[in-house]
Every structure is written in structure tokens, then in C-alpha cells.
Design brief:
Layout (H helix, E strand, L loop, with lengths): L11 H14 L3 H7 L3 H4 L1 E4 L2 E4 L7 H13 L2 H10 L25 E2 L2 E2 H21 L12 E5 L6 H9 L9 E5 L4 H8 L7 E6 L6 H18 L5 H4 E5 L2 H7 L6 E3 L16 H7 L1 H20 L6 H15 L4 E6 L7 H13 L17 E3 L11 H6 L6 E6 L9 H18 L3 H6 L4 H7 L7 E6 L4 H22 L10 H15 L10 H13 L3
Parallel strand pairs: 5-6, 5-7, 7-8, 8-9, 10-11, 10-12, 12-13
Antiparallel strand pairs: 1-2, 2-13, 3-4
Bound molecules: 6-O-phosphono-beta-D-fructofuranose.
């Protein structure tokens, strides 16, 4: 850890923003809109098919200037350029963070440690495309010679959330005569439910794991192998029913998967940034190589925009700065992502890993503890469903939860008036959250006085409205890249390593220690704290034998 940074909170722009936050707290969005008739257009930007309206964020022109000054003070552009050059910006693991290389076009070049990684990336993409085409056209057959009808991705974290989210998001473009399932949880119910109606002779497992050592994935993969071999009666069936995606090809071979059926990637791809790598194999089989390339092109368009656009017009940089503003300076603990599109129902879960594993850190790059809040909780559900459950708190609760409302101008399933109603709700929610309803307005509706306070909406609750024309593969890629670079911007401002995840290790180690105590293989119920000991004893007394 050689990199040294001074505390970001000591910087002039940081201090100015902290003082400015007190001013903005006293201003209502109603006043900000009243003071500037062109706010709706002035606080909106467009790039790569995405339209970002942040006019309903609690920012003035001065706030924006100060946030841009903060970005310069924190060296966001320098760090961004270092990422794009392939420098080892993941300092605690000594690695580059080069997911942007996964979507560079074939005619580009990016040399890292003397190797043009773009050449390697396209070699793997071409192999994936040949394999995906063979599964799709039936020329890749199962052990008994029948075509593959079911694809089950086994992976967890970044080796699950990206493929699962992308499959749901791009279902419109997927093969409807094939079944795609995703098994992640070590809970046996996940595997059992995912496979209970599948015919092993027509089922392909994609074992996706960067390390190929992850407990959950390897446990599920072993169960899948036993399920397949048990049904097909021959170990040789593994060669037709299992492929692997990993950086650890030695472990893949040790598991018994033919290296010819393995698709590699590289240590410079973080798990949560890996959906464009071979980890996307199940996505490619589902939607086909052409659509997968469109997805990559969408990512790349935002990569280029992030790399080239001035910060003032840079969508991911602005989104990242607004997230810092809302959480670190205005004190919100969480941000809700509310996609008004049913196909994006797994998008908030995907973003949870992206944002929280990246920026849930308390220590700066130089090892010093931060003296300001960093990563926030990100959560959400598709609208309009959330409106009938948790939006009450968003509108009238004591906590301010900034929201990203994501909408599309055209539906992939135009049914009667559904889409206008859906889209009306995007605009209505943003309007209601920003402007609320005053006591005078409530009284003017004839509300009994005893109910007036209950029916007031304070408003002044910030939202960003994010629009694209249609949920195409390219639009999905652009949307994900937008959030990736927003998260990057936040991490750069906070001066943390957004690419490591040491915080997941302790729980894993303890589970490895506790598991044999539960199964009875070792003496149990004494070596922990009194609560854990009692829970171990209770489980052992009641577990199924
Ligand atoms: O435990 C967290 C994590 O390391 C994630 O960062 C990663 O996406 C996930 O586990 C799965 O890891 P792997 O792809 O190596 O199985």
C-alpha cells in the first residue's frame, strides 16, 4: 500500500461543500424551481442514449460548481485516466481494474504488462460465440445426443448477479424455447428447485467462479455433477454437460471439467465488474452472440463518454458526485433505485453488490480511517410495485431517501394504455417527492383539520430521473456502465479502494470453522462466545440426522 492521500475532508472544496450543505438544507426544491425557470433543462444531460435529469436533486448552480471543484480536488479525472491506462489502481490487491477492456472493440489495443489484452478478450469472446451458437443451434448435444434445452448457471456474487440480472433484463431477446436458471445459494433448496423439473440429458451447467474455490459454488457444482452422473450413468457425461468460466483453469481441471470446455478471464476483472467477461456466457447463450455484442457496445459507449466528456457534462461523474452530496454532505444513509420496468427487477440487487462491495469501506487508500461517511445502502424494487409498499416512507418518513427513477419511453410489450400509465407514475412520483403538498393545499381540498397534518407531504425529497428510449441490449450495457463509473467516482472522491472486498473474508473463515461443529465432525459448542455456543448446541440437538 504505497499510495498516500491526504484526508479528503481537509480539502478546500470539501470544506466549502460542508458549509454550503447548511445553506442548501434551508432551501426547498420549490424555491430552487421558482428561482430558475430553465432548471428542468439546465440540470439535465444526455449521452450514449441515456437522459439524466437531476433537476429535482437538492442542488443549485453553486452546488454543482462546488461538486465539480471537489472532483478536481480529489483527482477523479487522474484516477479515471489511470484506470483506463491499466494502472494498478486496486492497490490492496496490486491489480488493475480493467473491466473497460472487456468491451473495447476489436480494432483497439490496450497493453498491460506487455500483453495486448484486447486481443485476448476477443479470442475468448469468439470462443464463447462459437460455443453459444452451437448450443443454440443444437449442434452441441448432451451425452445421449439430445440438444441442450436447459442452461443452469452456478455461481454467486458477481458470478451470479450479473448473468441473472442480464437474463431477466434481456428476456425479450432470449431464446423462448430454452430454460435458463441461476443457482447461487448454498441452501440446497436453490439447487433442488432450479433442477426439479429439468431433464439431465438436456441440461448444461455453466460453473462460473473467478477463483473456482468459492464454497457455495463448488458445493452446488459437486451436487450438479452427482445429479448429472447419477441420471446419465456415466462420469463421461460431465464433458458434455459442464462448462466452466474462471481465471483458475488449474482448479477447473481438478474439478474434472475438460480445459477445452473452460472459458477464461483475467485477475484484473473484479467479480462485480465481470458480466462482460466469460461470466456472461449464459447471457450469450440466452440472447445470442449478436445481442451480446450490442450489450458490450452499450457499455463501451458510456466508457468512452466517461473517459472523454468534461466533468460538467459527464453523466457517471455527475451521478457519482450527487451520490456523495446526498450521503456524505446531506446525511442520507441509503439510495433507492426504482426501475419502472419489470425486466429490470433484479437490477437493484445487482447494484447492491456493485455499490456496497465497492464502496463499503472505512479505510482510505493509505490505510488511515476515514472521518466521513462513505458507501451507502442501495436498495429498490420495480415501480409501480414499490409504490404500494415502501413509498409511504419515501414520501412522509423522517428519513430522506434519494431515489433514482429509471424509465423507458417505449415498452417492449405495448399493451393498451399500460405504458403511458407506467411512465406517468415515474413523473408523478418524482414530482410528488420534490414538491409535496402544503397544509394550505390540503385544507383547500376540504380536508378536516384533524387530518391536515397527516395529509401534508413535505416534499424536498431528491430524485434523479434516468430515461432511455427502449430496453435494448445496448441500453442495458450503458445503464450498467453508468452505475459502474458513478461508483468509481464516489470511491475516488472518498479516497478508498473500490476494487477490493476484504470485508467478506471474516464471515467465510468463521463459517468454515463452524460447519464441522454443526455436522458433529468436531467437538462443538464451547469455543465461541456464549451466544454462538448456545446456538450451535441448539442446532445440533435439533438438526436432521
Ligand atoms: O465473497 C465475495 C466474492 O469474492 C465476490 O467479490 C465475488 O463476486 C463472489 O465472491 C464470487 O467469487 P467467485 O467468482 O470467485 O466464485
Amino acid at each position: 500500500m504505497s499510495e498516500t492521500v491526504s484526508s479528503p475532508s481537509a480539502g478546500a472544496a470539501w470544506q466549502a461543500l460542508a458549509a454550503h450543505a447548511a445553506v442548501i438544507r434551508g432551501r426547498h426544491l420549490r424555491d430552487l424551481f421558482a428561482a430558475d425557470e430553465s432548471r428542468g433543462e439546465g440540470f439535465a444531460r444526455e449521452a450514449a442514449g441515456l437522459y439524466l435529469d437531476f433537476a429535482k436533486q437538492r442542488v443549485s448552480a453553486e452546488t454543482l460548481d462546488l461538486l465539480l471543484a471537489l472532483a478536481r480536488e480529489r483527482g477523479v479525472e487522474e484516477r479515471r485516466d489511470a484506470m483506463f491506462r491499466g494502472e494498478r489502481i486496486n492497490v490492496t490487491e496490486g491489480r488493475p481494474a480493467l473491466h473497460i477492456a472487456l468491451r473495447l472493440p476489436r480494432d483497439r489495443s490496450l497493453v498491460v504488462d506487455g500483453v495486448d489484452v484486447v486481443v485476448e478478450v476477443h479470442e475468448v469472446l469468439d470462443r464463447m460465440a462459437r460455443f453459444a451458437a452451437a448450443v443454440r443451434d443444437g449442434s452441441w448435444t448432451g451425452y445421449g445426443g439430445r440438444p441442450i434445452r436447459n442452461v443452469v448457471n452456478i455461481g454467486i456474487g458477481g458470478s451470479d448477479l450479473g448473468p441473472a440480472m442480464a437474463y431477466e433484463a434481456l428476456r425479450h431477446y432470449s431464446r423462448r424455447d430454452m430454460v435458463f436458471r441461476f443457482v447461487s445459494n448454498v441452501d440446497g433448496s436453490d439447487f433442488a428447485e432450479a433442477t426439479r423439473d429439468l431433464d439431465p440429458a438436456e441440461t448444461l451447467f455453466v460453473v462460473a467462479s473467478k477463483t473456482f474455490t468459492t464454497l457455495e459454488t463448488m458445493t452446488n457444482a459437486r451436487t450438479a455433477r452427482a445429479w448429472t452422473v447419477g441420471a446419465l450413468g456415466d462420469e463421461a457425461a460431465v464433458g458434455r454437460h459442464f462448462v466452466a468460466v474462471s481465471t483458475n483453469l488449474a482448479e477447473v481441471a481438478a474439478f474434472g471439467i475438460d480445459p477445452a470446455n473452460a472459458f477464461g478471464f483475467w485477475e484484473w476483472v473484479g467479480g462485480r465488474y465481470s458480466m462482460c467477461s466469460a461470466i456472461g456466457l449464459s447471457t450469450m447463450v440466452a440472447v445470442g452472440p449478436e445481442h451480446f455484442r450490442e450489450l458490450l457496445a452499450g457499455f463501451h459507449a458510456v466508457d468512452e463518454h466517461f473517459r472523454e466528456a468534461p466533468l460538467r457534462d459527464n453523466l457517471p461523474a455527475l451521478m457519482g458526485l450527487l451520490a456523495v452530496w446526498n450521503t456524505t454532505f446531506l446525511g442520507s444513509d441509503s439510495i433507492a433505485v426504482l426501475p419502472y420496468d419489470q425486466y429490470l427487477r433484479r437490477f437493484p440487487a445487482y447494484l447492491q453488490q456493485l455499490a456496497m462491495e465497492s464502496n463499503g469501506k472505512s479505510v482510505r487508500l493509505d490505510g488511515e480511517r476515514v472521518d466521513y461517511p462513505t458507501g451507502y445502502v442501495i436498495w429498490g424494487e420495480p415501480g409501480t410495485n414499490g409504490q404500494h409498499s415502501f413509498y409511504q416512507l419515501l414520501h412522509q418518513g423522517t428519513r430522506i431517501v434519494p431515489c433514482d427513477l429509471i424509465g423507458f419511453c417505449r415498452s417492449l410489450n405495448p399493451l393498451g394504455g399500460h405504458h403511458d400509465l407506467l411512465f406517468a407514475n415515474v413523473l408523478a412520483q418524482a414530482e410528488a417527492l420534490a414538491f409535496g403538498k402544503t397544509a394550505e393545499q390540503v385544507r383547500a381540498e376540504g380536508t378536516p383539520e384533524a387530518l391536515v397534518a397527516h395529509r401534508v407531504f413535505e416534499g424536498n425529497r431528491p430524485t434523479t430521473v434516468l430515461l432511455a428510449d427502449e430496453l435494448t441490449p445496448a441500453a442495458l450495457g450503458s445503464l450498467v456502465a453508468l452505475y459502474e463509473h458513478s461508483v468509481f467516482t464516489q470511491g475516488a472522491v472518498w479516497g478508498i479502494d473500490s476494487f477490493d472486498q476484504w470485508g467478506v473474508e471474516l464471515g467465510k473463515q468463521l463459517a468454515q470453522r463452524i460447519a464441522p461443529e454443526l455436522s458433529g465432525d468436531v467437538e462443538a459448542g464451547a469455543g465461541h462466545d456464549s451466544s454462538t455456543n448456545a446456538l450451535v448446541r441448539r442446532y445440533r440437538a435439533r438438526r436432521r440426522r
